[in-house]
Amino acid sequence: MSRYGAMYGPDVTFTGVPRCDLADPSSYADASVVIVGAPYDSGTSYRSGARMGPLALRICDYSEHTGSRPHLSLRVDPLLDLRVVDAGDVEMAPTETKLALDNLQAAVQQIAAAGKIPVVLGGDHTVAMADITGLAEHFGYGRISVIHFDAHADTGDIQFGSLYGHGLPMRRVIESGAVRGDRFLQIGLRGYWPEPPELLWMAEQGMRCYEMAEIGKRGLEEVLTEAMAIAVQDTGGVYLSVDIDVVDPGSAPGTGTPEPGGLSPRELLDAVRRIGRDVPLVGLEIVEVAPPYDHADVTAMLGNRVVLETLSGIARRRADAATGVRWDESTPMMAGRVRAVEPAAAETGSPAGTGSAAGTRSAAGTAGASESATVEAVEDHRDHERPL
User: Fold this and answer.
1) Do both 101 and 153 map to the same domain?
2) Which of 93, 258, 260, 359 is most buried by its number of CB atoms within 10 A?
């Protein structure tokens, strides 16, 4: 399929990353991550508007759209390090549900088959059915697990007389065998749905669901540790599905089915960053951002950061694998950024090294070196002020 561009609004890319065309494999051959938009919201059961989500997620950033976002604590630039590209939107006609989902599934499968990580910008959660199925077609049915952040389980059977809808996709992918029920982890559930029949079905499938009361009692860190351990057992990769309504609507009002009492933005961002670092992600989606109900773009901004934090985790995971050392993200922000050089070397004008991740850690360990050392140069030039 050739590049469609944007279904709604201008053809912009996610924070300015390069464009690619799925019909031209050479345009994304060097990329590790391919972004696609899924502007579909005909599956909503309450308030629509998520079809405008992909556009908002791409543009909602106060920094220049340079295609570069250096991460302060992880010391990676996910967009550059992973060579992220944007394929534009998939054509998803609001009146043709099956065709729309088939188009998206084909795009996700194509990206996965090329060895890339698909990042899907929704759209309502109906699109998860296509996203997960597309990955299962590539990796094998039952071979991927899902970590799913949401206020709602999305395991209903019928919605308005249809098998398609944003309250149903998780049941559909388990029924089809795309994902095993006992490798489906849900985090952040709350409120007054699902009802007993759906809960019984979920229990019979072996699903593990963490309701907010359990999260509050045990702590999100412990819950994540347990969920990730289950997710990587006998699977070939993990898919991350984030419905923005997992966050309390006081912080993320721009969504179709808000439910009070959710996670904080900080909790969600810390969680997805950790998942990106600690499990082998094969894809991710951010869904249910509905700009018509947003205030001052706070929901869209949060969704944008969900993508950036997850990709930063993936980039750091790869950097750590290359060096054999796990970077401590709590390292003081300035530590190791300036390279200390012996006075003799400074006097003779010996050129400074270009530095490396290992050198950065080494410099951090010698931050208390002799006062006679001369400050030579900042090793990591990737910052928000640098010219591109």
Assistant:
1) yes
2) 258
pLDDT at res. 372:
38
Among residues 323, 347, 366, the one where a domain terminates is 323
SS3 of 42-86: the string is: CCCCCCCCHHHHHHHHHHCCCCCCCCCCCCCCCCCCHHHHCCCEE
Shared domain check, 40 and 74? yes
Rounded Cα–Cα distance for residues 205 and 175 (Å) = 9
Is residue 72 in some structural domain? yes
Residue that terminates a domain, selected from 297, 323, 349: 323
Q: pLDDT tens-digit profile of 313-332?
A: 999 999 999 999 999 999 99
Q: What domain range includes position 154? A: 14-323
- Split into its structural domains, the chain has a count of 2
CA distances from 68 to 317, 332, 377 (A): 18, 22, 22
**Which tokens sit at 13?**
């890319």
Taking the mean position of all CA atoms in its chain, how far away is CA 47? 24
**Per-residue pLDDT reduced to its tens digit, 160-183:** 999 999 999 999 999 999 999 999
Tokens of 31: 């990329």
pLDDT of residue 1: 58
Strand 33-38 to 208-211 pairing: unpaired
* 198 Rama sector, left if φ>0, alpha if ψ -120 to 50, beta otherwise: alpha
Are residues 222 and 369 both part of a single domain?
no
Residue ranges for the chain with pLDDT beneath 50: 346, 350-388
Residues 72 and 19: beta-carbon distance below 8 Å: no
